[in-house]
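Sat 14:20. Reprocessing the chain from the morning session after the first attempt stalled halfway. Input below, unchanged.
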Amino acid sequence: MSPRYISIACADASLSAVLHSADSGTNYHTGVLIIVGGPQYRVGSHRQFIKLSRALAQQGIASMRLDSRGMGDASGEKQAFYQQDADISAAISAFFQHCPDVKHLVLWGLCDAASAILLYANTPDPRISGAILLNPWVRQQHSHAEVMLKHYYVKRLFSRQFWQKLLGGGVALRQSVTGLWQTAQQRKAKQRPAQHTSQASAENYVQLMLSGWQKFSGKVLLITSGNDLTAQEFLQLCATDSPWADCLSQAQHLQISDANHTFSSRLWREQVEQATLTLLQQLT
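Finished this time. Tokens:
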């Protein structure tokens, strides 16, 4: 079936989505809701989300690409990624309304959309069978500074190009040293205790992501890029925090060593598509 546009009521706004229905094939009881993070809309970087939906359709799997409030063709005021529970819930209801044969629905998200999925999981939803999380966003000042020191500044120090530019006057030395010192100071900064509230905010969303993951009973696939600071910050959190490590140990994890944040090459995109299909096949 050809893709079709649908409108979804959410609060006082109208969400926009494109549904790729599946009316035949071995996996027609399986669906994927692609949650889109900012500042993207439902096409995705490098048309990634369209290509993913087409790859799924070839396997008889329904999918929906969503514009949340204030993004793409959706109306309403743009919401922060940690305030998208209502958008996700409305999209899930619409998915089952338009694809009543779907029995296994998986949420799929890149970057802060992956974070939004874990936040949504704080309210258990039996309609969701799995989650596919790509390079989740867990930006915190101290952890980001540590990742920058470990994966950015050290890499530059061992880069021939950096030293060639430095000796040739192509690097602002004072500015670089100042940036390094500021990053080191941020690394020393202590994380402020999270507020004990179920209302997500910029201050506590990382803690609520963890609690959502701990409550989630479906299958989880984590896909991370080897050439991406966002992914490195997330993996560092899992390596240094026992509750996060426990969640990761129970999930499936694919690391694509050379990939950038948006999996921009055909090879990386196809690896993501295949990993997605592999998880979906486990649900049938």
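The chain has two domains: 4-140+200-281, 142-188.
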